[in-house]
Design goal:
By secondary structure, the protein is an alpha/beta fold. 43% of the residues lie in helices and 16% in strands. The radius of gyration is 26 Å and the shape is globular.
């Protein structure tokens, strides 16, 4: 049974479950896995595949034949759904593409900034309790738009050594370059350091369990990563006019992800609070992932009653949830007051699942309160910015004394001399 509180009865910081290091000993296990992959390469990956996935493989890379067989095994309507989702994601993310700029100043000075895509991106796609072709699209499409030349995907196989056909189809539709049958922390290690088969990449993106998240944290610096993923979160802001069945269903759409996931309702209506609680009890037994959803709701789920919607929004800004649903009659009236959220779903007919699959904005979102300072995955995650400077000698001469003085005040004589030497007659050739 979900717990109910008055907003003044609970610390806002305690509303969502955010102990992403809840399982002890994870770091030690991950460190050992990374060390083994660095030392033994493919041999370690094959051994871990047999240990964790119960699959005996002779080759790690997915063949073209396997991809074609996956495409043929799926109905054409689902392939079309993947294509529609890809096109929507592409249309949204195209607006994020940044342009180079150049500033030309008097005296022939040229300053500017240019964007360059990372050469290789690693995409981790979870397996295990569920497969997520949507994650393939959400991560690969922005990378393609950014201009990444090689997108390397890793995902764990089943016990027969196969990858879910929907995952392979999404990879083909999204333009993934190479696919490897590797999961867990060992996949992150392979992407970060490279093995005989798996190429070393420049950036690793994609969600995963606590072992994957910990491995991503451990390899930062060797490669870049998108974010550290915590448990899934949904916060619903609702007034008394909402359909309680819809609200409960939306909360359960995240609760079914993971036993550590958190689903929270903040409402100004005590009547709606009770109706949603009753709906959760009615709907949970109907779910295929009933056990996961039940644990999530009973352990982490909360219904909070606020006096006003302004109080509810203020609480949401402190929480900074991954997903924020605004289920009120005039959602745009609240949009400007919402400061911290990964993705905002406006109105009573915008379930979080719409964003997960088809609308276009990215569903790889900041969790664990990091929406206070970070953003959803975007094209920006796959590019680097480089500034450039050009000064003719006459332009440098006009500022040379100031640079020399600045450098000497910092005690950096070589810096100063690198400028003054250009105006020393003995070296002016």
């Amino acid at each position: 049974m979900i717990r109910q509180y008055k907003l003044n009865e609970i610390a806002v910081s305690d509303i969502l479950n955010r102990d992403i290091m809840a399982e002890r000993g994870v770091e030690e296990i991950v460190d050992e896995i990374i060390a083994n992959v660095r030392r033994d390469g493919d041999a370690a990956l094959l051994a871990y595949c047999e240990k964790f996935d119960k699959a005996r493989l002779t080759s790690l890379e997915v063949s073209e034949q396997e991809i074609e067989e996956a495409m043929q095994s799926l109905d054409a309507d689902f392939i079309r759904t993947l294509e529609i989702a890809r096109d929507n994601i592409s249309a949204f993310h195209q607006q994020q593409i940044q342009k180079n700029f150049v500033i030309t100043q008097q005296g022939g000075i040229v300053l500017g900034q240019k964007y360059t895509a990372v050469e290789k991106a690693g995409l981790y796609v979870p397996g295990g309790t569920a497969s997520y072709p949507s994650s393939v699209l959400m991560n690969a499409v922005p990378a393609k738009l950014a201009g990444v030349s090689e997108i390397v995907m890793t995902t764990p196989p089943n016990s027969e050594g196969k990858i879910a056909p929907a995952i392979l189809a999404a990879a083909r539709v999204a333009g993934v370059t190479r696919i490897f049958k590797v999961g867990g922390a060992q996949a992150v290690a392979a992407l970060a350091y490279g093995t005989e088969s798996v190429p070393k990449v420049d950036k690793i993106v994609g969600p995963g369990n606590i072992f994957v998240a910990t491995a991503k944290r451990r390899v930062v610096g060797m490669v870049d990563i998108d974010m550290i993923d915590g448990p899934s979160e949904i916060l619903v802001l609702a007034d008394g006019s909402c359909n309680p069945a819809y609200v409960a269903a939306d909360m359960l759409s995240q609760a079914e992800h993971d036993k550590l996931a958190t689903a929270v309702l903040i409402t100004t209506s005590a009547e709606l609070a009770q109706k949603v609680s009753d709906e959760l009890e009615r709907q949970i037994p109907l779910l295929p992932r009933e056990e996961i959803a039940r644990t999530s709701i009973d352990t982490n789920g909360k219904i909070i009653i606020a006096d006003t919607m302004e109080e509810a929004v203020a609480a949401a800004n402190i929480i900074a949830p991954e997903h924020l649903e605004v289920c009120v009659d005039e959602p745009f009236a609240l949009l400007d007051s919402i400061k911290n959220a990964g993705s905002i779903f406006l109105g009573k007919n915008v379930p979080e699942a719409l964003g997960d699959y088809l609308a276009g904005p990215n569903h790889t979102l900041p969790t664990s309160g990091t929406a206070r300072f970070s953003s959803p995955l975007s094209v920006d995650d796959f590019v680097k910015k480089s500034s450039f400077i050009y000064y003719p000698k006459d332009a440098l001469a006009k500022v040379a004394d100031r640079i020399v003085d600045f450098a000497e005040r910092e005690g950096l004589g070589a810096h100063a001399r690198s400028v003054s030497i250009r105006f020393d007659a003995d070296f002016d050739k």
